[in-house]
Specification:
Layout: H1 5-14, E1 17-21, H2 28-43, E2 47-51, E3 68-69, E4 80-84, H3 96-101, E5 104-109, E6 120-123, H4 130-138, H5 146-159, H6 170-179, H7 186-194, H8 199-210, E7 213-215, E8 220-225, H9 227-233, H10 243-248, E9 255-263, E10 266-273, H11 279-285, E11 289-291, E12 294-300, H12 303-315
The structure holds manganese (II) ion (MN).
Manganese (II) ion binds at residues 29, 85, 110, 129-130, 159.
């Protein structure tokens, strides 16, 4: 059962020192929601720290108020610990222990699977993002500055894929409309989150596009990059994460298959599709998994043979 915003605010009133954490491997929403909440509660006169793991460079554009720390002293025990954007306690990583030791705990989240693990919980699975919920909590309660507005905007933009995902609602857009009254550079935030890449990432994308092939009358596009090509561009697997969805954008394509050699003779297969093909079924055949429209698996063997087997599975659905 959810608590009300008023109940959460009462707990905040009772607390002076407040710790806030998002999930491990923080994304734009976790960073934006934690930072916005922390800055706003600081404006209320609270002693706030955000305990958060290291994150990707392209999220450094998000204002944090200098409140983020990676670790706290062993003696540190806040009055209140707020978990943000975490579906369960395990998502807090090593911070789960301190969370358990804290007197007051609050869980603010938008994942359907949320386990209501705190003493007070506010879970809205209809919300586009945790940032959207944080806005509702602080609106007409705690101060909102341009930096706070920017952090919430960043979180919403990230989790909605730039207002593309079906989680984007009229409420989301009403909040964004409110945020845009504040003076912050939304263009810069959007570009940093979605249109910034390392030099190596740009080069390996070029290699992947050069290696592009079409099969089944262009309904499927494929690309393979080798271990050697990856080494030449000096990239990590993280920097290959955009290739499959990019090539899925070739017009007339119903699914994409991108393969890269993780180590000699072992290939990671990453697939994207639209309604016609359920790539999670294909991935499951090879011991992988994921979602209907985005799935992956890892297979040992010879590249072209692996691709052939994958395509045979996809063909069954065409
Ligand atoms: Mn989120």
């Amino acid at each position: 059962m959810n608590n009300t915003f008023d109940e959460l605010r009462q707990t905040i009133e009772l607390s002076q020192s407040i710790a806030i954490s998002g999930h491990i491997s923080p994304d734009g929403d976790a960073i934006g929601a934690c930072s916005a909440l922390a800055m706003s509660l600081t404006e209320l006169g609270k002693d706030v720290v955000v305990i958060l793991d290291e994150y990707q460079e392209n999220f450094e554009i998000i204002p944090t108020g200098g409140l983020i720390v990676k670790n706290v002293d062993d003696e540190y025990l806040p009055d209140l610990y707020i978990a943000v954007d975490c579906g369960d306690k395990e998502r807090l990583g090593t911070k789960a222990k301190l969370f358990d030791e804290t007197l007051y705990t609050i869980n603010i989240d938008h994942h359907k699977s949320n386990t209501f693990f705190a003493k007070q919980n506010y879970v809205d699975s209809e919300a586009s993002s945790a940032s959207e919920i944080v806005f509702q909590l602080i609106y007409n309660y705690a101060p909102i500055t341009a930096d706070i507005a920017a952090a919430i905007y960043a979180g919403i933009v990230f989790d909605t894929g730039g207002f593309r995902h079906s989680s984007t609602s009229p409420v989301t857009m009403a909040i964004v409309s409110e945020l845009m009254e504040y003076d912050f550079n939304f263009t810069e935030i959007y570009n940093s989150i979605f249109h910034t890449r390392s030099f190596g990432e740009a080069r390996i994308m070029g290699v992947a596009l050069f290696n592009l092939k079409e099969v089944f009358d262009g309904r499927i596009v494929t690309s393979i990059v080798t271990d050697e090509e990856i080494k030449k561009c000096g990239v990590t697997s993280d920097e290959l994460s955009e290739v499959s969805s990019y090539i899925k954008g070739v017009s007339g394509t119903v699914a994409s298959v991108f393969m890269y050699e993780k180590k000699p003779g072992t290939f990671k297969v990453s697939m994207r599709s639209d309604d016609l093909v359920d790539v999670s079924q294909v991935a499951a055949k090879f011991g992988g998994g994921g979602h209907m429209r985005a799935s992956g698996c890892t297979i040992d063997g010879e590249a072209n043979k692996i691709l052939e087997n994958i395509l045979l599975e996809i063909e069954k659905q065409l």
